[in-house]
Design brief:
The chain is an alpha/beta fold and 241 residues long. The protein is 41% helix and 18% strand. It folds into 2 domains: 174 residues, Vaccinia Virus protein VP39 (Rossmann fold, 3-Layer(aba) Sandwich), CATH 3.40.50.150; 37 residues.
Length: 241
Amino acid sequence: MAQTLTDRLRAMPPGLHGEGNEFWGLAWPALEWLEREVRPGMATLETGAGSSTLAFAAGGAEHVAVTPDAGEEQRIRAQADRFGIDTSRVRFELGPSHEVLPQLDARELDLVLIDGAHGFPYPVLDWWYAAPRMKVGGRMLIDDAYMPPVAALVDALRAQPGWEIAESVGYRTVVVRKTAEGIPHWDWAGERIGGRMSFRYLPISERAVAAVRHRVFSTRAGLALVARLRRRAGLRWRQTG
């Protein structure tokens, strides 16, 4: 059986990152997934660059990799040459993804990998700018989904009517599919995004009171009471104003 790209990289991970002496690649199951799923002529995009860029190139995709590190482009292209991978259909866009993505051409995308900056709010911004360019039915691979800023994005997409969780790949990576056009509703409807509702931002002495008050006044009876009190307050204001 011929050795796969993943096998070759796993046997001797190349220094693609840092100063050329580090390898941060996708988890091996996710890289294998890319090898299986990428097809010639696909329009693809990734935030971040590395072993995944080699997989997109090897699969024959018309690919854009967004990275702030010009050295990564040089090292990835050099590694591709050593492996005999054609990178003529790969374009590197240099800069932070939140600055680069809004400026990209509006071609429709078949497959997107979100694996750039992981701090809040960058995974959400990567999705926000990439999602409108994706075809309905297109897929997005979201790496490091266990990290809280990334998990918040996954939680949100699970709750959105235009998206669905297609599968998980290994323990770090989630595949979501775009099922319809549209943007999220601007109001919160109780979705569990980022975990349960919490008042942990308040001083400890105020948290219990806030939690009880919210539970009481967010019930149907509590909301009716609030509305009645507001009406009375408004009436008094009109009578004395």
